[in-house]
Specification:
The chain is α+β, with helices and mostly antiparallel strands and 218 residues long. The chain contains 3 helices and 13 strands. The strands form 2 sheets. Strands 5, 6, 7, 8, 9, 10, 11, 12 and 13 form a 9-stranded mixed beta sheet that branches. It has a 4-stranded antiparallel beta sheet with strand order 1-2-3-4, with no helix packed on it. A hairpin with a 4-residue loop joins strand 7 and strand 8 (126-132).
Length: 218
């Protein structure tokens, strides 16, 4: 004789309609040891805990318990902490070019893209031209001054190439603090004003899988 007892749940739906089959039961007690299933007639498929709701079918001489899918319960006490900053969209991909006029003509006259005027950025040692692509931009970079970092890049890459990618963040100060805690090196002590007139910083490519990443305040 099984040592489990059962409490039948209400046999009517909230609309007042009778529940015909299968009958639902709640386990209200079971034997102390739950190592082995509690057998009922032909046996149950597994043991149940107090409070579990089960379906009871009667196919013949044997009665078998069938478990419904477990219910996932969420608790506000276990809320996931939110980060202080969030990563936004791709702002642009920067391309170093040895001939800025030629590169601008390619995107403007051949590829029919909208391009900006040449913008000198002495603090960064570059001339820039932005190519509008609708969902993002390309930034064409050309050296400005002898100490330009783009000049050094072009010495190693004569034909030019992708220099960095720029990602937007909603709080660049918080982003810098957290990235430093996670051992990601930032290439300047403080954000500088970039080509869009917003604060920017660069992350060390050796900490970003070989990619120079620029973060820009959204």
């Amino acid at each position: 004789r099984p040592r489990s007892s059962f409490e039948a749940l209400p046999s009517f739906t909230p609309a007042g309609l009778p529940l015909v089959t299968p009958q639902r039961w709640r386990i209200v007690a079971h034997r102390p040891s739950n190592v082995y299933p509690t057998y009922l007639g032909g046996g149950v498929e597994r043991a149940a805990d107090i409070g579990d709701v089960v379906f009871l079918f009667v196919p013949g001489l044997f009665t078998r318990l069938h478990w419904r899918s477990p219910t996932v319960r969420w608790s506000s006490d276990q809320a996931i902490p939110q980060p202080l900053w969030k990563l936004g969209q791709l702002n642009h991909v920067a391309i170093a070019v040895p001939d800025l006029e030629k590169a601008t003509a390619l995107y403007r006259d051949v590829l029919q893209a909208r391009v900006s005027k040449v913008l000198p950025l002495p603090d960064h040692g570059v001339y820039t031209v932005f190519v509008e692509l609708g969902n993002t931009k390309l930034e064409l970079l050309h050296p400005l001054g002898e100490k330009s970092p783009i000049a050094g890049f072009l010495q190693k890459n004569k034909a030019g190439g992708i220099h960095h990618i720029c990602l937007e963040v909603d709080d660049i100060t918080s982003a810098i603090e957290e990235l430093k805690r996670k051992k990601i090196r930032v290439l300047s002590d403080e954000p500088q004003i970039g080509a869009h007139g917003k604060p920017v910083v660069f992350l060390h490519p050796k900490d970003c899988d070989g990619v120079l990443v620029e973060l820009e305040q959204a």
